[in-house]
Amino acid sequence: MTPAARVQSAIEVLDAVIAAARREGASAERVASEWLKARRFIGSKDRRAIRDLAWGAIRLCGEVPVSGRAAMLAVAKVDPVLTALFDGSRYGPAPIREEEPVASVGVAPAWLEEQLAASGISREQGAGLLARAPLDLRANRLKTTRDRLAAILPLEAERTQAPDALRLPGGTPVESWPEFAEGLFEVQDTGSQLTCSALEVCPGEAVVDLCAGAGGKTLALAAAMQGEGHLLACDIDRPRLSRLAPRAARAGAQVETRLLDPGRETEALADWQGKADAVMVDAPCSGTGTWRRGPEARWRITPQSLARYARMQAEVLRIGASLVRPGGRLTYVVCSLLDAEGPDVVGAFLERNPEWRAAEQQVGAGTPRGSGLRLTPWDDSTDGFFFATLHRL
Length: 393
Ligand SMILES: C[S@@+](CC[C@H](N)C(=O)[O-])C[C@H]1O[C@@H](n2cnc3c(N)ncnc32)[C@H](O)[C@@H]1O
Prior knowledge:
alpha/beta, Rossmann fold, transferase, S-adenosyl-L-methionine, methyltransferase
């Protein structure tokens, strides 16, 4: 493929990514893989180059671009080598016309940049949300230790601030390694691991992971429980929750799963009301803290979806709290740095529920925000999270 043809291919990938973002369709990762799958003749070097070009444009454009070409022209504006490739050659992009639309550069759509600023995040820090992310592993304590795992991995891995975490360069194909098939590790960001540590679960406890999804945090909780006690993982999303059982089997973790009906969660959890020692509420959110991994996610958020998330967050926090026994605890987590999804939700809960108190959290990282802690790429080298641990009196 010529360099110009790669640019034209990236423009086509971007068109598909933009269309999917507009109709709340598949993620950019998925869209790009489908696009490439339909063109098997493209070699691996070209695939990587196309992907890098497309992701460079996604990271640069704050507002949803009008087209893939407009997005790529925004990159061309700051990259003369790329400008020269708009040469009208066969399979390459047409020459640039003066009046053509060029996508605007920024961290996020203007309204969302305002929300970030109101949440104490500067523009420079916001740009940090779009940097390339490393790949973190969590050594599975049910089968190994961090040191033993580090000694057998094919690459040198860095230790991060979470007790079981190892860090590798982003994109390392760890899921093809035999150590992964043996369940010796899971892929999990250090920040996510730290939010699990905050719940301080112990062997023998009764623990609920209310919004378990495919079990990223469930498996970390299971490892901390060392196979003793009862761990219940719930979600309203059947496809996601159904991915948990095979992962748990690989990890050697004992987990009961329960699919919930939206709006009827409390009925389905009647046997757990006021019984749990610890509850994890990893609430659905806009995901502003994970833009490093899916930068096009910021093109999907709307003021309406943010308001919808805030309602869901208050609701899952209420449901989770009803499961906690007197003297028990709950950790509320969002992978978002917007106050509306974190400190404000917890603050409103504490105001309405005088029998709950925010606890001091000691996880060796994070900056206080509201009644909880915030983890960020710039201060903690993690994805962005807000989490708060609450104790029921
Ligand atoms: C942030 S994701 C969970 C990610 C998961 N805990 C992990 O670490 O991989 C939030 C999850 O909450 C689920 N959810 C949304 N509303 C819910 C509800 N009312 N009850 C239980 N789960 C809910 C969503 O389906 C989604 O899987």
